[in-house]
Design a protein that fits this description.
Structural class: alpha/beta
Number of helices: 11
Largest sheet: 4 strands, mixed
Order of helices and strands: EHHHEEEEEHHHHHHHH
Strand content: 5-15%
Distance between the termini: 28 Å
Bound molecules: zinc ion
Shape: globular
Protein backbone atom coordinates (compact mmCIF):
# COMPACT_ATOMS: atom_id res chain seq x y z
CA UNK A 1 0.00 0.00 0.00
CA UNK A 2 1.28 3.44 -0.87
CA UNK A 3 1.72 5.32 2.37
CA UNK A 4 5.06 7.13 2.32
CA UNK A 5 4.53 10.89 2.33
CA UNK A 6 0.75 10.55 2.54
CA UNK A 7 -1.49 12.34 5.03
CA UNK A 8 -1.83 10.78 8.48
CA UNK A 9 -4.94 10.87 10.65
CA UNK A 10 -5.02 13.38 13.48
CA UNK A 11 -7.07 10.92 15.53
CA UNK A 12 -4.20 8.76 16.75
CA UNK A 13 -3.54 8.82 20.49
CA UNK A 14 -0.07 7.54 21.21
CA UNK A 15 -0.03 6.01 24.68
CA UNK A 16 2.86 3.65 24.11
CA UNK A 17 5.17 3.13 27.02
CA UNK A 18 2.47 3.91 29.57
CA UNK A 19 1.38 0.34 30.23
CA UNK A 20 0.19 -1.20 33.46
CA UNK A 21 2.55 -3.34 35.47
CA UNK A 22 1.69 -6.74 36.84
CA UNK A 23 -0.69 -7.76 34.08
CA UNK A 24 -1.80 -11.27 34.97
CA UNK A 25 -1.74 -12.88 31.58
CA UNK A 26 -0.49 -16.35 30.88
CA UNK A 27 -0.09 -18.33 27.72
CA UNK A 28 -1.56 -21.80 27.29
CA UNK A 29 -5.27 -22.26 27.39
CA UNK A 30 -5.96 -18.81 28.74
CA UNK A 31 -3.97 -17.36 25.90
CA UNK A 32 -6.06 -19.34 23.46
CA UNK A 33 -9.34 -18.18 24.92
CA UNK A 34 -8.09 -14.64 24.89
CA UNK A 35 -6.94 -15.01 21.32
CA UNK A 36 -10.39 -16.21 20.35
CA UNK A 37 -11.83 -13.11 21.93
CA UNK A 38 -9.48 -10.97 19.93
CA UNK A 39 -11.12 -8.25 17.92
CA UNK A 40 -14.47 -8.88 19.55
CA UNK A 41 -16.95 -6.09 19.58
CA UNK A 42 -15.17 -4.36 22.36
CA UNK A 43 -14.10 -6.54 25.19
CA UNK A 44 -16.67 -7.47 27.74
CA UNK A 45 -15.00 -6.63 31.04
CA UNK A 46 -16.91 -9.49 32.69
CA UNK A 47 -15.16 -11.95 30.43
CA UNK A 48 -11.75 -10.54 31.18
CA UNK A 49 -12.49 -10.56 34.87
CA UNK A 50 -13.76 -14.13 34.83
CA UNK A 51 -10.50 -15.14 33.22
CA UNK A 52 -8.54 -13.21 35.79
CA UNK A 53 -7.15 -11.11 33.02
CA UNK A 54 -7.72 -7.65 34.32
CA UNK A 55 -4.38 -5.99 34.59
CA UNK A 56 -3.49 -5.28 38.18
CA UNK A 57 -1.05 -2.90 39.75
CA UNK A 58 -0.46 0.74 39.17
CA UNK A 59 0.25 2.43 35.92
CA UNK A 60 3.98 2.44 35.48
CA UNK A 61 6.06 4.51 33.17
CA UNK A 62 8.23 2.15 31.17
CA UNK A 63 11.81 2.81 30.27
CA UNK A 64 11.87 4.70 27.03
CA UNK A 65 14.84 4.59 24.72
CA UNK A 66 15.32 6.15 21.30
CA UNK A 67 12.36 5.42 19.04
CA UNK A 68 12.69 2.19 17.08
CA UNK A 69 12.65 3.11 13.35
CA UNK A 70 10.62 0.01 12.47
CA UNK A 71 7.95 0.92 15.06
CA UNK A 72 7.86 4.53 13.89
CA UNK A 73 7.40 3.40 10.30
CA UNK A 74 4.58 1.11 11.40
CA UNK A 75 2.99 3.98 13.33
CA UNK A 76 3.09 6.12 10.20
CA UNK A 77 1.55 3.27 8.23
CA UNK A 78 -1.37 2.71 10.62
CA UNK A 79 -1.98 6.47 10.84
CA UNK A 80 -2.27 6.69 7.05
CA UNK A 81 -4.60 3.67 7.05
CA UNK A 82 -6.79 5.35 9.67
CA UNK A 83 -6.88 8.50 7.53
CA UNK A 84 -7.91 6.41 4.52
CA UNK A 85 -10.75 4.82 6.51
CA UNK A 86 -11.93 8.32 7.49
CA UNK A 87 -11.92 9.45 3.86
CA UNK A 88 -13.80 6.40 2.60
CA UNK A 89 -16.36 6.13 5.40
CA UNK A 90 -17.11 9.87 5.44
CA UNK A 91 -18.02 9.56 1.77
CA UNK A 92 -19.97 6.31 2.18
CA UNK A 93 -22.02 7.65 5.10
CA UNK A 94 -22.86 10.80 3.15
CA UNK A 95 -23.64 9.08 -0.15
CA UNK A 96 -25.06 5.71 0.89
CA UNK A 97 -26.57 6.37 4.31
CA UNK A 98 -28.86 9.30 3.65
CA UNK A 99 -26.32 12.03 4.18
CA UNK A 100 -25.30 10.80 7.61
CA UNK A 101 -22.19 12.22 9.24
CA UNK A 102 -19.37 9.79 9.92
CA UNK A 103 -18.07 10.27 13.43
CA UNK A 104 -14.34 9.61 13.24
CA UNK A 105 -13.15 7.23 15.94
CA UNK A 106 -9.84 7.60 17.78
CA UNK A 107 -7.13 5.00 17.52
CA UNK A 108 -5.11 4.43 20.68
CA UNK A 109 -1.63 2.96 20.32
CA UNK A 110 -0.42 1.20 23.45
CA UNK A 111 2.10 -1.30 24.69
CA UNK A 112 1.38 -4.06 27.17
CA UNK A 113 -1.89 -3.04 28.79
CA UNK A 114 -4.49 -0.33 28.47
CA UNK A 115 -7.48 1.10 30.29
CA UNK A 116 -10.49 1.51 28.00
CA UNK A 117 -14.12 2.34 28.71
CA UNK A 118 -14.71 -1.40 28.20
CA UNK A 119 -12.33 -2.29 31.00
CA UNK A 120 -8.63 -2.99 31.28
CA UNK A 121 -7.11 -5.06 28.54
CA UNK A 122 -3.70 -6.39 27.63
CA UNK A 123 -2.04 -6.78 24.24
CA UNK A 124 -2.77 -10.50 24.27
CA UNK A 125 -6.41 -9.86 23.36
CA UNK A 126 -5.26 -8.40 20.06
CA UNK A 127 -6.53 -5.17 18.53
CA UNK A 128 -10.07 -4.31 19.61
CA UNK A 129 -12.79 -1.71 19.31
CA UNK A 130 -14.57 -0.42 22.39
CA UNK A 131 -18.10 0.76 21.53
CA UNK A 132 -18.41 2.65 24.83
CA UNK A 133 -15.64 5.15 24.06
CA UNK A 134 -15.62 4.53 20.29
CA UNK A 135 -11.89 3.94 20.15
CA UNK A 136 -9.78 1.33 18.38
CA UNK A 137 -7.00 -0.03 20.59
CA UNK A 138 -3.87 -1.32 18.92
CA UNK A 139 -0.49 -2.57 20.08
CA UNK A 140 1.87 -2.27 17.12
CA UNK A 141 3.49 -5.50 18.32
CA UNK A 142 0.45 -7.29 16.92
CA UNK A 143 2.01 -7.02 13.51
CA UNK A 144 4.78 -9.39 14.59
CA UNK A 145 2.17 -11.60 16.25
CA UNK A 146 0.25 -11.75 12.99
CA UNK A 147 3.29 -12.61 10.92
CA UNK A 148 4.83 -14.86 13.57
CA UNK A 149 2.66 -16.77 16.02
CA UNK A 150 -0.50 -16.63 13.94
CA UNK A 151 1.48 -17.39 10.81
CA UNK A 152 -0.41 -15.28 8.34
CA UNK A 153 0.95 -15.87 4.90
CA UNK A 154 2.21 -12.46 4.09
CA UNK A 155 4.47 -11.06 1.48
CA UNK A 156 3.66 -11.66 -2.12
CA UNK A 157 5.42 -9.85 -4.91
CA UNK A 158 6.05 -6.77 -2.85
CA UNK A 159 7.65 -8.41 0.17
CA UNK A 160 7.29 -6.86 3.59
CA UNK A 161 5.60 -3.77 2.24
CA UNK A 162 2.71 -5.86 0.99
CA UNK A 163 2.75 -7.72 4.29
CA UNK A 164 1.82 -4.47 5.99
CA UNK A 165 -1.56 -4.59 4.30
CA UNK A 166 -2.42 -7.44 6.65
CA UNK A 167 -2.33 -4.80 9.37
CA UNK A 168 -4.52 -2.54 7.23
CA UNK A 169 -7.08 -5.34 7.06
CA UNK A 170 -7.02 -5.69 10.84
CA UNK A 171 -7.57 -1.95 11.31
CA UNK A 172 -10.30 -1.86 8.66
CA UNK A 173 -12.02 -4.74 10.49
CA UNK A 174 -12.00 -2.79 13.77
CA UNK A 175 -13.31 0.28 11.96
CA UNK A 176 -16.02 -2.04 10.63
CA UNK A 177 -17.07 -2.52 14.26
CA UNK A 178 -17.28 1.25 14.59
CA UNK A 179 -19.58 1.38 11.56
CA UNK A 180 -21.73 -1.34 13.21
CA UNK A 181 -22.01 0.95 16.22
CA UNK A 182 -23.89 3.45 14.01
CA UNK A 183 -25.69 1.35 11.39
CA UNK A 184 -28.42 -1.23 11.91
CA UNK A 185 -30.79 -3.44 9.93
CA UNK A 186 -32.94 -1.57 7.39
CA UNK A 187 -35.98 -0.04 9.04
CA UNK A 188 -34.70 -0.73 12.53
CA UNK A 189 -33.70 1.87 15.07
CA UNK A 190 -31.22 -0.51 16.62
CA UNK A 191 -27.58 -0.61 15.56
CA UNK A 192 -25.91 -3.94 14.81
CA UNK A 193 -23.74 -3.47 17.90
CA UNK A 194 -26.70 -3.13 20.25
CA UNK A 195 -28.60 -5.90 18.47
CA UNK A 196 -25.78 -8.38 19.05
CA UNK A 197 -25.15 -7.10 22.55
CA UNK A 198 -28.78 -7.80 23.44
CA UNK A 199 -28.29 -11.42 22.32
CA UNK A 200 -25.14 -11.85 24.38
CA UNK A 201 -26.65 -14.28 26.87
CA UNK A 202 -29.06 -15.99 24.45
CA UNK A 203 -28.46 -19.66 23.54
CA UNK A 204 -27.52 -18.62 20.00
CA UNK A 205 -25.50 -15.64 21.22
CA UNK A 206 -22.30 -16.97 19.65
CA UNK A 207 -23.97 -17.17 16.26
CA UNK A 208 -24.77 -13.48 16.50
CA UNK A 209 -21.14 -12.82 17.37
CA UNK A 210 -20.03 -14.72 14.26
CA UNK A 211 -22.45 -12.75 12.09
CA UNK A 212 -21.12 -9.50 13.51
CA UNK A 213 -17.48 -10.47 13.00
CA UNK A 214 -18.03 -11.63 9.43
CA UNK A 215 -19.91 -8.41 8.77
CA UNK A 216 -16.87 -6.45 10.04
CA UNK A 217 -14.75 -8.45 7.58
CA UNK A 218 -17.19 -7.60 4.82
CA UNK A 219 -16.99 -3.90 5.75
CA UNK A 220 -13.19 -4.14 5.71
CA UNK A 221 -13.54 -5.47 2.16
CA UNK A 222 -15.84 -2.61 1.16
CA UNK A 223 -13.23 -0.20 2.52
CA UNK A 224 -10.47 -1.93 0.51
CA UNK A 225 -12.62 -1.61 -2.63
CA UNK A 226 -12.78 2.17 -2.26
CA UNK A 227 -9.16 2.50 -1.13
CA UNK A 228 -8.32 0.75 -4.39
CA UNK A 229 -10.81 2.48 -6.68
CA UNK A 230 -10.89 6.04 -5.30
CA UNK A 231 -7.60 6.46 -3.47
CA UNK A 232 -5.61 4.14 -5.73
CA UNK A 233 -3.34 3.16 -2.88
CA UNK A 234 -3.34 -0.61 -3.23
CA UNK A 235 -0.28 -2.31 -4.68
CA UNK A 236 0.35 -5.81 -6.04
CA UNK A 237 0.41 -8.38 -3.28
CA UNK A 238 -1.63 -6.26 -0.83
CA UNK A 239 -4.85 -8.23 -1.09
CA UNK A 240 -2.94 -11.52 -0.89
CA UNK A 241 -1.48 -10.57 2.46
CA UNK A 242 -4.84 -9.30 3.77
CA UNK A 243 -6.49 -12.55 2.72
CA UNK A 244 -3.67 -14.44 4.43
CA UNK A 245 -4.39 -12.54 7.62
CA UNK A 246 -8.16 -13.16 7.37
CA UNK A 247 -7.43 -16.86 6.96
CA UNK A 248 -5.01 -16.94 9.91
CA UNK A 249 -7.57 -15.50 12.34
CA UNK A 250 -10.38 -17.91 11.41
CA UNK A 251 -11.75 -19.79 14.42
CA UNK A 252 -11.06 -23.27 13.00
CA UNK A 253 -7.47 -22.39 12.10
CA UNK A 254 -6.83 -20.87 15.54
CA UNK A 255 -8.45 -23.82 17.32
CA UNK A 256 -6.45 -26.34 15.30
CA UNK A 257 -3.26 -24.45 16.00
CA UNK A 258 -3.75 -23.94 19.72
CA UNK A 259 -6.13 -26.70 20.82
CA UNK A 260 -5.46 -29.38 18.24
CA UNK A 261 -9.13 -29.79 17.32
CA UNK A 262 -12.05 -27.84 15.93
CA UNK A 263 -15.21 -27.09 17.90
CA UNK A 264 -17.67 -25.26 15.70
CA UNK A 265 -20.03 -24.54 18.57
CA UNK A 266 -17.35 -22.40 20.16
CA UNK A 267 -16.88 -20.22 17.07
CA UNK A 268 -17.09 -16.50 17.75
CA UNK A 269 -15.57 -15.02 14.59
CA UNK A 270 -16.28 -17.55 11.85
CA UNK A 271 -14.15 -20.10 10.00
CA UNK A 272 -11.13 -19.15 7.90
CA UNK A 273 -13.12 -19.93 4.77
CA UNK A 274 -15.94 -17.63 5.87
CA UNK A 275 -13.69 -14.78 6.93
CA UNK A 276 -11.81 -14.83 3.63
CA UNK A 277 -15.03 -15.16 1.66
CA UNK A 278 -16.85 -12.21 3.23
CA UNK A 279 -13.79 -9.99 3.11
CA UNK A 280 -13.37 -10.76 -0.59
CA UNK A 281 -17.10 -10.36 -1.21
CA UNK A 282 -16.95 -6.82 0.19
CA UNK A 283 -13.84 -6.08 -1.84
CA UNK A 284 -15.16 -7.39 -5.14
CA UNK A 285 -18.58 -5.71 -4.88
CA UNK A 286 -17.92 -2.51 -2.92
CA UNK A 287 -21.62 -2.75 -2.10
CA UNK A 288 -22.35 -1.35 1.36
CA UNK A 289 -25.92 -2.70 1.33
CA UNK A 290 -24.56 -6.22 1.08
CA UNK A 291 -23.66 -5.97 4.79
CA UNK A 292 -27.25 -6.76 5.81
CA UNK A 293 -27.04 -10.22 4.27
CA UNK A 294 -24.90 -11.34 7.20
CA UNK A 295 -27.98 -11.06 9.40
CA UNK A 296 -30.66 -12.26 6.97
CA UNK A 297 -29.08 -15.52 5.79
CA UNK A 298 -29.64 -18.71 7.79
CA UNK A 299 -26.58 -19.31 9.95
CA UNK A 300 -25.68 -22.56 8.14
CA UNK A 301 -25.62 -20.67 4.85
CA UNK A 302 -22.93 -18.19 5.84
CA UNK A 303 -20.27 -20.39 4.25
CA UNK A 304 -22.10 -20.50 0.93
CA UNK A 305 -20.65 -18.10 -1.70
ZN1 LIG B 1 -13.89 -8.18 15.32
Amino acid sequence: MKYEGREESSNVEDQRGQGFSGAAVGGGIVGVVVLLLASLLGIDPRILQSLGLSAGGDPKQEQTGPPDPKQEDLKKFVSVVLKDTETVWTKLFRDKLDGATYKKPKMVLFTGAIQSACGQATSSVGPFYCPADEKVYLDLGFFDELTGKLGATLGGKNGEKAGKFAMAYVIAHEIGHHVQNHVGPPGSRQTYSSLVNSKHDAPDGKQYSVRLELQADYLAGVWAYYADKDLKTLEPGDMDSAVGAAFAVGDDTLQKKFQGRVNEKAFTHGSSKERVMWFQKGYSSGNLNGMHELFTRPYEDLERP
